[in-house]
């Protein structure tokens, strides 16, 4: 070895050189990682943008109702349903008018008609009608029978003389169980319509048992009966 010593090696320089090499290697690796991460971000970002664009295109073709749709449209629909609901037309009245009228018969009148309207529909009252005892303002109902009474100024019944012991004629009372319509009309306050009602009552219920039963006939009240009582009999 000729007695020559090897050159002196500086440990710090060696360490510094190794450190720089390691750092350079790490920088290369970090750069590669950054490039790879950037590529991944670009791919993911592109996919997200494409998906968002597709969803916006689809949603733009669908009509979305406003949030107040349920509050405004539903009540409006209900109101329209109520407005267009069909209304029920009241059925007209059918009334039979007879008695002292020009043209007795069944007439058709609108709802809320009065007795005066029914009288006009049959041509008005006859000349012998007793309108003082008729309430022309009375309302009518369906299937009603209106009888207009005749005037009570009827001829007195014929006085039939009968022989008696003394030879003085007396008035024969009218038998309401056997009298004809003409005979009944000879009594005071009895017109053709009332005479027919007496005969109809007699046929439906049998002969009158008492003269007081005459008050069961429609149109014969207490006052009219008092005038008839002395002139009628059931014998």
Describe this protein's structure:
- The protein has 235 residues and is mainly alpha-helical.
- The chain folds into 3 domains: 73 residues, no CATH class; 56 residues; 60 residues, Photosystem II 12 kDa extrinsic protein (DNA polymerase, domain 1, Orthogonal Bundle), CATH 1.10.150.320.
- It contains 6 helices and 5 strands, in the order ααββαββαααβ.
- It has a 3-stranded mixed sheet, covered by helices on one side. Strands 4-5 form a two-stranded parallel sheet.
- Strand 1 and strand 2 form a beta hairpin.
- What's the helical proportion of residues? 40-55%
Largest sheet: 3 strands, mixed
Provide the spatial order of strands within the biggest beta sheet: 2-1-3
Number of helices: 6
Specify the structural class: mainly alpha
Strand percentage lies at 5-15%
């Amino acid at each position: 070895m000729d007695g020559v010593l090897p050159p002196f090696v500086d440990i710090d320089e060696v360490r510094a050189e190794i450190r720089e090499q390691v750092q350079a290697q790490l920088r290369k690796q970090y750069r590669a990682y950054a490039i790879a991460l950037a590529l991944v971000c670009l791919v993911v970002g592109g996919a997200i943008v494409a998906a968002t664009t597709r969803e916006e295109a689809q949603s733009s073709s669908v009509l979305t109702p406003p949030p107040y749709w349920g509050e405004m449209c539903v009540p409006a629909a209900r109101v329209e349903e109520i407005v267009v609901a069909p209304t029920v037309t009241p059925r007209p009245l059918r009334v039979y008018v007879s008695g002292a009228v020009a043209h007795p018969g069944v007439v058709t009148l609108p709802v809320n008609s009065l007795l005066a309207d029914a009288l006009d529909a049959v041509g008005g009252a006859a000349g012998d009608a007793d309108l003082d005892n008729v309430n022309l303002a009375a309302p009518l109902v369906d299937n009603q029978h209106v009888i207009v009474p005749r005037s009570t100024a009827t001829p007195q019944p014929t006085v039939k003389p009968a022989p008696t012991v003394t030879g003085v004629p007396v008035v024969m009372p009218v038998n309401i169980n056997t009298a004809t319509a003409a005979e009944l009309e000879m009594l005071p306050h009895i017109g053709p319509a009332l005479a027919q009602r007496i005969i109809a009552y007699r046929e439906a219920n049998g002969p009158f048992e008492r003269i007081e039963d005459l008050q069961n006939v429609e149109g014969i009240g207490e006052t009219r009966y008092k005038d008839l009582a002395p002139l009628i009999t059931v014998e």
